[in-house]
């Protein structure tokens, strides 16, 4: 049994980016934990229901069969205002407690600033050290952030690892249902139709019915 840690900026990023893969890990008997560094709602002003977003994250964890999520309180869509060291230390603390074998996190050039900060913090927290528990770090794509980033600023998302989620696509869609108010109408990239189409396309590029795609940030084969 492996321990899997998904480190995301906001609740729903995990469902969009690697929900099917996490469901597949659970089915294989792996222990799955999600860490969210910001609430994903606070930047929307006084009417934002932060508590609801947290409840949604917990509902998604129950739907997934994962451990209850770890929710931190860094400022939503303003994580660049926080010294990176503070974010790194928070991530290090969770990694020390959870002891994951595999980490899934954001692509480093997403349009969303929080996603980029989380990516950088994860890599810093997981800098290679003798005896580290982390054997693999994979970067996922988040519709309406990853594909919106400019390739002129940094490299575009170029996946080389594909997880067959043909049998878990409906699990992924069920996780997105937990965040129903975050979804949009088609043809928005964050619509159910677009998310399913992306999974189908990623699958078709490698000859399976549905897949999630990842960059390989680090992978140690023993």
Describe this structure in words.
With 222 residues, the chain is of the alpha/beta class. It has one domain: LmbE-like (Rossmann fold, 3-Layer(aba) Sandwich), CATH 3.40.50.10320. The protein has helices at 13-27, 50-64, 84-98, 113-125, 169-178, 192-204, and strands spanning 3-8, 31-38, 70-74, 102-106, 136-140, 161-164, 211-219. It has a seven-stranded mixed beta sheet with strand order 3-2-1-4-5-7-6, sandwiched between helices. Helix 3 (84-98) packs across helix 4 (113-125). It is globular and about 40 Å long. The two termini are 16 Å apart.
Helices and strands in order, then pairings?
Elements: E1 3-8, H1 13-27, E2 31-38, H2 50-64, E3 70-74, H3 84-98, E4 102-106, H4 113-125, E5 136-140, E6 161-164, H5 169-178, H6 192-204, E7 211-219
Helix pairs in contact: 1-5, 2-5, 3-4
């Amino acid at each position: 049994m492996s321990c899997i840690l998904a480190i995301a900026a906001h609740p729903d990023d995990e469902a969009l980016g690697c929900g099917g893969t996490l469901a597949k890990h659970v089915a294989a008997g792996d222990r799955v934990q999600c860490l969210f560094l910001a609430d994903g709602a606070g930047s929307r002003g006084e009417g934002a229901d932060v508590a609801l977003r947290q409840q949604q994250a917990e509902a998604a964890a129950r739907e997934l069969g994962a451990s209850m999520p770890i929710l931190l309180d860094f400022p939503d869509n303003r994580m660049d205002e926080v010294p990176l060291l503070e974010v790194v230390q928070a991530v290090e603390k969770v990694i020390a407690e959870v002891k994951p074998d595999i980490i899934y996190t954001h692509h480093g050039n997403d349009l969303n600033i929080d996603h980029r900060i989380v990516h950088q913090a994860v890599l810093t927290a997981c800098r290679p050290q003798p005896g580290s528990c982390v054997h693999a770090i994979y970067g996922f794509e988040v519709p309406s952030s990853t594909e919106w980033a400019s390739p002129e600023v940094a490299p575009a998302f170029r996946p080389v690892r594909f997880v067959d989620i043909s049998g878990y696509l409906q699990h992924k869609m069920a996780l997105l249902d937990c965040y129903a108010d975050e979804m949009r109408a088609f043809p928005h990239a964050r619509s159910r139709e677009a998310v399913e189409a992306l999974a189908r396309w990623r699958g078709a590029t490698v000859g399976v019915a549905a897949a999630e795609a990842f960059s390989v940030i680090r992978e140690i084969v023993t």
